[in-house]
Design brief:
4 helices; 109 residues; single chain; Methane Monooxygenase Hydroxylase, Chain G, domain 1
Amino acid sequence: MEDMQNLDSAQDLCACCHHKNTPRGEKEQRQLQNRVNRIIGQLNGIKNMIDDNRYCGDILMQIGAVESALQSLGYVILEDHMRTCVVEEVRKGNEDILSEAVELIKKLK
């Protein structure tokens, strides 16, 4: 049931998904992709550790590292969102974007 609520919440957030007005630069895009690829590598490492019946403490340490990496990625994207998307929308007179930004920050933790 909780998974369904999380899915509904994610769908609500993405109901208005669209592309950035100001595209990310090539370097910025590459840096984000590199971060995501490292996280995927860490997750695959955790999967292998579980398959290999590794010590729980070691697996938990790797889970913590992945959570930290995801949090860091989220903050990078949030900063970009605030500097570009939010600023652009406020300049257009759309102050509702501020409420959205607050909700996104809450979702990020």
